[in-house]
């Protein structure tokens, strides 16, 4: 429905489509810190460290879970949006961000559900383990056995270890 009349304003399109919560975004931007953006799609996860600029947000570093398979030896048949894959994506973006000179950020989960131990918080745990300083509560992070993938398959733990080692070597 289109607003009509002199006292009605058109709402932002991203707000109307339910894509952006502008009130939450403004609160995050007021802090002046870069944002650690975590987004989950149907097939994979994307982690970015984004800095605000008046002409548009500037992406400092970005890692998608597809790069885990291409560059770091993540098994092709393993899920790209599981908790272990999310953790490794967060770990990789944390290492890249530190190499780019960014050592603190705040978490931006967008409109994702804030459920204890979910994939977004697995990526947060990866960023923290990489050395990025992000304010958080310890109770929201997933358990170590879920991060290692033992709830999915016992052999996945070795794949997590080898992929993590490959990420550390690439950013050493």
Written overview of the protein:
- Strand 2 and strand 3 form a beta hairpin.
- Helices cover 40% and strands 13% of the residues.
- With 172 residues, it is an alpha+beta fold.
- The name of the CATH topology is Nucleotidyltransferase, domain 5
How many β-strands, per DSSP? 4
Spans of at least 5 consecutive residues whose pLDDT stays below 50 are none
- Proportion of residues in extended strands: 5-15%
Give the count of structural domains: 1
By secondary-structure content and strand pairing, the structural class works out as: alpha+beta
Element order, helices and strands?
Answer: HHEEEHHEHHH
Overall form? globular
CATH class: Alpha Beta
Sheet bearing the most strands, described? 4 strands, mixed
CATH architecture: 2-Layer Sandwich
Rounded to an integer in angstroms, the radius of gyration calculated over CA atoms is 18 Å
Enumerate the strands of the largest sheet in spatial order, edge to edge or round the barrel. Answer: 3-2-1-4
The end-to-end span amounts to 55 Å
Percent of residues in helices comes to 40-55%
Mean pLDDT: 91
Number of helices: 7
